[in-house]
Amino acid sequence: MNGRALVVGGGIAGLAVARGLVRGGWEVDVRERLDGPPDIGGALAVWPGAMRAFDRLGLGERLRERAEYRSDAALLRPDGRKLVGVGGRAGGHLISRSALLDILVDGLPDGLVRWNTPVTAAELVPGGGFDVVIGADGIHSLVRRTVFPHASPPRALGSVAYRGTLPGRVEGVTEIWGGRRIFGVTPLDAHTTNWYAAIDQRLLTAAEHVARDPGIHARVLRREFGGWGGQADRILAGLEAHGVDRRELLDLPSFGPYVRWRHALIGDAAHAMAPNLGRGACESVVDAAVLADALNEEPTVARALTRYDRARRGPTRRIVAASRFLNRISTTGLNR
Asked: Which UniProt keywords apply (predicted)?
């Protein structure tokens, strides 16, 4: 089957499903409110299931060429003592978000992605002349709010995340846990270190909780992670020079099927999750591959959407729950 598809959102999920549908002969219109690929930086882990999805989309080899493969990681205490070490044959690829978006955009037909072109709610119901409408527009999805009115809004996880990059090579993947705080370090590329941190929001003052000044973020990080040693000290010393991204962490409660009428939700629009398992982008790409395969292979849109929902709703809801639980253990006090 093929037809006309509207994809709302030009991030990882939207671009991935667009590629899959174009390969199947669909006419695809991607609308993105931003004026270019959204890039909030940092490294993404691509686990084996997501790599298989990239292979189905015809992008696996290109991703492997630009990514760094890692099969070892360590969970540490702030004093450097190892709690858990992981190694062996099971591993994943690390790639920068900007490099992944470049791979997804490259090769799409000119004009298929319309940047700086937001969609209105009126265009979504009943479907605006499209055979299928795909909501890939993130945790605050307009498609979900418009077409799935009983869906619960995002919920706060009670923790705040910080992240950034720093010049300099790092070889290992480490994460440090201590007293409602985590600090992680991974490679980004051959010349850059990726770092992230999360803390219980109750550790912040009221002013710090609403601050937008990177200098205040740096001060919080030094207060909470100073003296943790190793890579943490090097990163804390360079915060002002290289910037800090800060955001409150949210996830999405379960709300029933990911499909309704001729509409489908994928990625964070369907199952936004805590970042602790590193699965958000991975599950978005798997969604995209599964939905594209269903729409390319089934005789009707209704059958394709039913197949997609049956395949993806259960597994993703379990990962949302597991990610939320791990977030609670690591940053909101249950590990004490």
From this structure: Monooxygenase, Oxidoreductase
Say how far apart CA 177 and CA 166 lie, in whole Å.
21
User: CB neighbours of 71 closer than 8 A, spacing ≥ 6?
Assistant: 87, 88, 89, 90, 91
Asked if the structure places residue 170 within a domain, the reply is: yes
The tens digit of pLDDT for each residue in 98-131 reads 999 999 999 899 999 999 999 988 888 876 789 9
Evaluate the CA torsion angle 119, 120, 123, 124 in order and state its sign: positive
Distance between CA 280 and CA 210 in Å, rounded? 25
Nearest Cα to 203, choosing from 227, 236, 181, 229? 181
Instruction: Round the CA-based radius of gyration of the chain to a whole number and report it.
Output: 20
CATH number for the domain that contains residue 259:
3.50.50.60
With respect to residue 84, please indicate whether it lies within any of the assigned structural domains.
no
Q: Which two tokens stand for residue 131?
A: 């055979």
Tens digit of each residue's pLDDT (9 = 90 or more) over 38-59: 766 788 999 999 999 999 999 9
Domain region containing 324: 4-71+92-154+251-331
Q: Which residues of the chain have pLDDT under 70?
A: 39-40, 86-90, 127, 230, 333-336
* Within-domain flag for 82: no
- Coil, helix or strand for 282? helix
